[in-house]
Design brief:
By secondary structure, this protein is an alpha/beta fold. The protein has helices at residues 3-13, 29-37, 48-54, 75-78, 91-103, 127-135, 160-181, 197-202, 212-215, and strands spanning 19-23, 42-45, 63-66, 82-88, 108-114, 145-152, 188-190, 207-210. The chain has an eight-stranded parallel beta sheet. α2 links the parallel β1 and β2 (42-45). The longest helix has 22 residues, at 160-181. The chain is globular, with a radius of gyration of 17 Å.
Length: 220
């Protein structure tokens, strides 16, 4: 199937209100342009250098989401391009993003990354850490950042019951944070990838991050 057919098929399957983030890491600009011509406007990149290299070559109405682990020394590199950073995994990173956005007079959306998977390699706030940070007021008074929701990855497993439990935990945590943060802008749950997005949607995902099912296997 072509990229166009893949996007059309996915969009036909996604319920109303669920947005598709095309995960374009390691794919060349030409393939992103194909997806753009098929109507795709939200693209997700994992690496700062790659986002900074691709964004200037593509149409300016693309909404770039940074979805990978963000090192503090790479924040400045993505700040002119990213409209949303989905991978805020510490209070320190959040403050730095706010400061860098203010420096270049931009306003940026962020998602708080939750660590719910059974794999230690994945980063993010634990549920207790994120709730404690909210209780301490860490998510208020940010001049150039809007906290728009949460992001998470489930354990990479074929056990969809485990995946469902993890996504349910994300949804529960989102609901608790929503009442604590008390902002109409806090309304996004980014979870679900090519292998588990239907389960994520069942548990309240509003953004799904799909790469392989759009672009095919990555060209490393």
């Amino acid at each position: 199937m072509s990229i166009v057919q893949n996007i059309e098929r996915l969009k036909a399957q996604l319920p109303q209100g669920v947005k598709l983030v095309a995960v374009s890491k390691f794919h060349p600009v030409e393939r992103l342009q194909e997806a753009y011509e098929a109507g795709q406007r939200i693209f997700g990149e994992n690496r700062a250098q790659e986002l900074a290299a691709k964004a200037p070559q593509l149409p300016t109405d693309i909404e770039w989401h940074f979805i990978g682990h963000l090192q503090k020394n790479k924040v400045r590199m993505i700040m002119p391009w990213a409209s949303t950073i989905q991978s805020i995994d510490s209070e320190e990173l959040l403050q730095l993003v706010n400061k860098e956005a203010a420096r270049i007079d931009r306003h940026i959306k962020v998602l708080l990354q939750l660590h719910v998977a059974k794999e230690q390699t994945k980063s993010g706030f634990t549920v207790e850490e994120v709730l404690q940070a909210a209780r301490n007021g860490a998510f208020h008074d940010l001049s150039n950042v809007t906290i728009a929701g949460v992001m998470a990855m489930a354990t990479f497993t074929t056990d969809m019951e485990q995946v469902a439990q993890e996504f349910e935990l994300v949804h529960d945590t989102f609901a608790k944070l929503q009442s604590m943060i008390n902002s109409p802008a806090f309304n996004e749950i980014s979870m679900g990838m090519s292998h588990d997005w239907p389960v994520a949607v069942e548990h309240g995902a509003t953004l799904v991050r799909i790469g392989t099912d759009i672009f095919g296997p990555r060209e490393y």
